[in-house]
Amino acid sequence: MKTDRLLGAPITINWAITNRCDFKCDHCYSRDDPSEELEQQVLVECINKVADAKVLSINFGGGEPLLRKDLLDIAKSASERGLRVSMNSNGFLITGEKARELKSAGFAKVGISIDSHNAGVHDEFRGVKGSHEKAVKALLYLNEAGIETSISTVICRINNRDVKSLIDFAVQNRVRHLNFHNFKCSGLGYSNKDRLDLSAREWKEFYLKAIEARQKTEGIIISLDDPIIASLGSKSSHSMVKGSVCGKLSLNIKSNGDITPCGFIPTVIGNIIKDELKDVWFKSEVLEKMRHKQPKGKCVKCGSYADCLGGCTARALALTGDINNPDPHCWVNDRE
């Protein structure tokens, strides 16, 4: 079976620099994470190690990155080392002045999490009244400051039938990217999966509508990050590699420096303080297994496996305990 060529380093590091957050989202994967934050000096030294490893970009997340008072200094250090700096934020703390400060600190892109075009639905899902209004204003401020913007939407039961409305909303707010993220079953996402997650059939229905809408929509990039759409004759947003991007294009670093394959896979494969990133990248047995998954169950005879590679590795691990098992979101039955 053809495998992807391993890059010399991750293209992107997703770095959860804090687990603190001012929201109470029903699907949060990090709220119960007890990891402590690295001090600024240590964090900057670790960022230098990432730059030395020839990583191209760094995306700050959490938690809410803006709750770190030293975020601007940290971002500036990363930008000055040649890293493309971006961030995921709920937008609540972004004012016009803060947007200009983010621009000066080197932020090239900021993604704002908005899960519904409907303010009430978004506010309830995120647990903070007025959060939708603040998020929309954040997009305006960021655009005015000259920072590329995107909207990140977690697809689940509150919005899976709102494809057109979500796209129209993104276009109205002048974002370059609209990211439809598949629902992960990590942290509170696991605790609330029975209430929020879709059935396999519902996921198929959603993706059919989303793929059709993506083909018809101009002026905005609509990203679908789910490998299982290969069975629909389409590709995910990360078509540089087959299957999940975890450990192939990106790695995740937690607030205490622990390295994991992605933010939704809790398996620690190193620590950026004491380990060299390239040693982890090339020598991790966990990453090796993720890069060479072996089909099980209905995947064995599936004609889409060469592109899908079993779907989302994080979800398979969370719900079945085995990365090689079929993604539970997959709608392809055994006969197919």
Task: Give a written overview of the molecule.
The chain has 336 residues and is of the alpha/beta class. The chain has helices at residues 40-52, 71-80, 96-105, 119-126, 131-145, 163-172, 188-191, 193-196, 200-216, 277-283, 285-291, 305-308, 313-320; strands spanning 12-16, 57-61, 84-89, 107-113, 148-154, 177-181, 221-224, 250-253, 258-260, 270-271. A ten-stranded mixed beta sheet has the order 7-6-5-4-3-2-1-8-9-10. Helix 6 (163-172) links the parallel strand 5 and strand 6 (177-181). The two termini are 20 Å apart. The model has no long low-confidence stretch (mean pLDDT 93).
Estimated radius of gyration = 19 Å
Mean pLDDT: 93
Numbering strands along the chain, what is their spatial order in the largest sheet? 7-6-5-4-3-2-1-8-9-10
Number of helices: 13
Low-confidence stretches: none
Spell the H/E element sequence.
EHEHEHEHHEHEHHHEEEEHHHH
* Major pleated sheet: 10 strands, mixed
Instruction: Return the structural class.
Output: alpha/beta
Give me the count of strands.
10
Percent helix, as a range, is 25-40%
Shape: globular
Strand content: 5-15%
What is the terminal-to-terminal distance? 20 Å
